[in-house]
Amino acid sequence: MFRGDFMKYAAAYAPYLALLLLIRFAAEVTMHSCMQLLLVFLPCLLLYLGCSIAVPFYAYRLVKKSYMQNQQLPVVSFTIFMFVFASLIISLVQYVFYAYLSPDYIDNLYQNLLANIQITAKVYPNLAANFQQIADTMVLPTPLQFATASIATNRLVGAILGLMYMLIIRFKQKKNNPQS
After folding, report:
1. What does the radius of gyration of the chain's CA atoms come to, in whole angstroms?
2. What is the C-alpha separation between 161 and 83, in angstroms, rounded?
3. Which end of the chain has the lower number of beta carbons within 10 A, N or C?
4. Which residues of the chain have pLDDT under 70?
């Protein structure tokens, strides 16, 4: 693998990461939809937390596997592009879900947010005016805006994790080769 081919390999590893992100998204959606059903909510919460914790470790495994094949791999760029390609796959699934499968999901999510703001305003009456101003200015995003927000979020997560992976790999490399 040449240094310039890292995007091709990032795109090849992205579906594996996207599968884990898809499981996390399905758990999140089910968790939000079944808040009242404790027998459904708890397993979905545990699955969501498990997938959220597993994403950085699984991504590190993929980066390390690629780095072992090519020591010239730009770790940070590879990780960012792997997350970008995975988030493109996930955002497509999210858009189909928000726009066609459950068009009222975003509206229900924001209605629950407004209800929580009103409950919090009752608990903290001195902040009630601020909460009401937030509730009045809140605009419901479109399914496309909601889905593309995950691309930016995953790109940021990929950049942060890429920097951490680079430091870990360089530290292990120096530890194994003290003269370099």
Report:
1. 20
2. 10
3. C
4. 1-4, 179-180
